Amino acid sequence: MKEVTALVEASLSECLPSSWDVPANLRESMQYSLMAGGKRLRPLLVIAAAEALGGSREAALPVACAIEMIHTYSLIHDDLPAMDNDDYRRGKLTNHKVYGEAMAILAGDALLTHAFYSIVQAARGHQVPAEQVLNIVEDLSVLAGPKGMVGGQAADIEGEQGITDLDQLKYIHLHKTGDLIIFSLMAGGRIANATEEQLTALAAFGRHLGLAFQIQDDILDLTGDEEKLGKKTQSDVKQQKVTYPYFIGVEASISEVERLTQTAKKAITDANFAHPERLLEIADYLVKRDH
Q1: Is the pTM of this model over 0.90?
Q2: For the chain, which end, N or C, has fewer CB atoms within 10 Å of the first or last residue's CB respectively?
Q3: CA 150, 155, 158: angle at the middle one, nearest 5?
Q4: Distance between CA 207 and CA 174 in Å, rounded?
Q5: What are the C-alpha distances in Å from 72 to residues 22, 88, 115, 226?
Q6: In the structure, how many helices (H) and strands (E) does the chain have?
Q7: What is the mean pLDDT of residues 117-146?
Q8: What percent of the chain has pLDDT over 90?
Q9: Among residues 134, 289, 143, 119, which one has the least CA distance to residue 220?
Q10: Which whole number is the average pLDDT over 241-259?
Q11: Cβ count near 102 (within 10 Å)
């Protein structure tokens, strides 16, 4: 994970060509959030999925960077006063607290748009077939758009006005968090020319892992260490957000994370992957993480 994170961060630091005439404040605002750290989970999954099928790490890298841009844009916008109104992200002031709301919105817009440029570079520089790049672009448009992540965010905003059942919360978690994880895995698979059966297995792995990941976040908000998390704990309670622990309790939530993780791993072990080990190890890591 450290090796891939270093590779991704080196690439992200150069993702906006220095020769482009971009307003300095916009460039700085984009880089501020893009280089603010984090687990780099989604890029890791792109690369791990590609390598699980014998694909090239270098060919996967432009798409790995693209999904981190999408994730970062969503966090910048999520932190805005009109959304979650957060002052800190990963232990640093949020983008709008440093650059102002208008520039933060534009930095998010720019990262969202630039992600598609980055995906195309997989074909331009690494001979990923154009048909696969087209599929990746379509997947991202669906899974990051109104049917996917943005739909989950909209449901989350509506949910703050009063979620009444666990199904609504599950919808939010599956789309707001899970869909980008599904995309990451499928994109890595496409780069390595995965079969339809393998893509289905990767999607199932991502769906269950994504839900487990978000439930673990709900648990850590109650039980985690603020210094390790880089943000305030108990924020869900203070904002009166309903979570899995709210509905079913902490112990049952921990059991659900374990169940979902085992189901995710089974999807991979039942399919024909050349090197599934890293994906299985990542699943185990995520269920045991403390930040």
Answers
A1: yes
A2: C
A3: 130
A4: 7
A5: 19, 14, 11, 21
A6: 16, 2
A7: 97
A8: 82
A9: 289
A10: 91
A11: 9
